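User: structure tokens for this one?
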Amino acid sequence: MKIQNSFSEQQPSLYLVPTPIGNIQDITYRAIDILNEVAVIYAEDTRHSGALLKHYNIKTPMISLHQHNESARISTILEKLHEGKSIALISDAGTPLMSDPGEQLVAKLTAEGIPVIALPGATAIMPALTASGLPAHPYLFYGFLPTKQTQKLKVLKKLQSYSETLVFYEAPHRILDTLETIYKIFGNRKAVLARELTKRFETFYRFSLEDYALLDHLKGEMVLIIEGSPEEIVVTDGDVVEHIELMIADGYREMEAIKHVAKSRKIPKNDAYMAFQKYKKTQEGKE
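Assistant:
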């Protein structure tokens, strides 16, 4: 067991600092203090974050850390921390690691016993969820769905029986396709699309999934919230077989796929196994 006492000693630490998602005033006094005090700030895009630092007269040096160079940056960050320098990590907007870079870094530092201190602050999830009109608790935040249709289908088939309110991020050019796919799998449920949160054109669209086509030509950052499953969904053998086949097509071995599907659909593993074996026999009979 490893225990982190974040503030028991003045230890060099990594600070995860949320930044505004739109309105530049949505930053805490503590976040500004930390960004002034650390030795260096690692930012997803130094050009984007430069405007924020300039606005608050923060002169701390910045270095980029994004999805393409995160692995390469870790050793340098470790060196700085071992030298006694504290580091801050910020993303373009919102809370680091929430569909943003930093996961590899935090995993490495926590494994080495280096304190990682997360500040509370801006995130698109909470304002979208709490103002949506759908149940705010319990909820499941997924983030961005896969871009490949087969992978997206696999994820949504897993989520369709969840009773929790579901929260996604989505890009404007994919939103209609995503809504269409969700409607085909989930059926008609309540949904909310929140766009441009905290900005001048902040808008909430509250609708039924069957009306997804009305949301054409929308722009801006988006949070999509879907009503949880209103009732327990009966899982048929056909659903199980289709799910197993999708996983095998993605490279899983048969037993791995069966085990995963049984767990995700909350059915006995033997039931999933028997359904797939029965299906295979019917296919063999056709040959």
